[in-house]
Amino acid sequence: MAHFFDGIEGLRFDPASTGTAFRHYNPDEIVLGKRMEDHLRFAVAYWHSFAWPGGDPFGGQTFDRPWFGDTMELAKLKADVAFEMFDLLGVPYFCWHDADIRPEGATFAESRRNFEEIIDYFEGKMEACKTKLLWGTANLFSHRRFMSGAATNPDPDIFAWSAATVKLCMDATHKLGGENYVLWGGREGYETLLNTDLKRERQQAGRFLQMAVEYKHKIGFKGAILVEPKPQEPSKHQYDFDVATVYGFLKEFGLEGEVQMNIEQGHAILAGHSFEHELALASSLGLFGSIDMNRNDYQSGWDTDQFPNNVPEVALAYYEVLKAGGFTTGGTNFDAKLRRQSLDPVDLIAGHAGAMDVCARGFKAAAAMMEDGTLEAMRAERYAGWEKDASQAMLQSDFASIAARVEDSGIDPQPTSGRQEILENIVNRFV
Ligand code: XLS
Ligand code: NI
Ligand code: NI
Question: Which residues line ligand 1 (CB under 6 A)?
Fold first, then answer.
């Protein structure tokens, strides 16, 4: 026992509770024929919960955690606390970067040994608990060696270091039975074109991703490879701006059948999209994989990684997830951190508990909208003209014959209402 959460009891579903409990998330409740836990597939992000010290651009550490430090002993204490929290929350999944879980060594080999020792430690812990690995990933952005990128770095030795790191993290994800492997191109972008060969950098990134896919097949990893788009921050220009940009990139490098997306709510907002737009686009392109369910502050223009707290927004997101057929290997990862004044163990529990409840409420609203069917019926009605044989035949014809038909038939198209307000009112009946 690490004693960090002493005095805090495991969370239970208790709608009448006035303390910390789930009021909406009941893992065993059947929604649309499946347990809620199996629909939502919640995951805790190791980095924000256990590795982040509470800094902001004006000040450093605010959190005083007993496991902060660079020794293996402390890394194991951190793991003990993490697994205690997974247990208290009853979450089915967690996610990590290599750098979150092990101390950095003086050499690559030492970092690797540290990492592998912790992976073995995780393996032992995972045998005794229900929490599984949703995804692993490599941190190729924090250390100063990555300041000019990882795969896109002008220095080939950094490319090599990054490839060796991703290999290691894929091996570990595979070993722990992870269901996905994520690549977020943290510093795969640039600050100024004056020092950047954009064409070369994109080629390097494309080859790197091909190698990751080749390696997945080589080791027989059956999970999904997911790319996580983000428009800016840390680089001014990121090569993986949004879902549409990543789709073009995957097509260019012949990877569209191999790679899917991990879509983050806050990143969608930074790209000038809604979360549901990014989800719907990924689904329509056959690229939907998993989600990072953490919001931004709408005023700050920064990836503030806050726990979700807006039920209507979450409902529209899960509506798209359900329309996409729900999660297969993916899940709902809380890539979210506490506010830096939220110092106490109970804050960490409450942040996750509240987020799980918000997601459960939103999800149940989305499921009810699906079951009700009015929204889909009205959408279908809007496109009903396209169901006619003549409309489909037109798509197989050409401009000249269409033009002739327009005059011959004397068609006189009349605008029809898009019904947005009515549709929004329908959504409001459920949220
Ligand atoms: C940063 C990203 C990161 C990825 C994993 O903004 O969201 O946390 O999810 O590297
Ligand atoms: Ni993010
Ligand atoms: Ni993320």
Answer: 97, 137, 182, 184, 228, 230, 264, 292, 303, 335
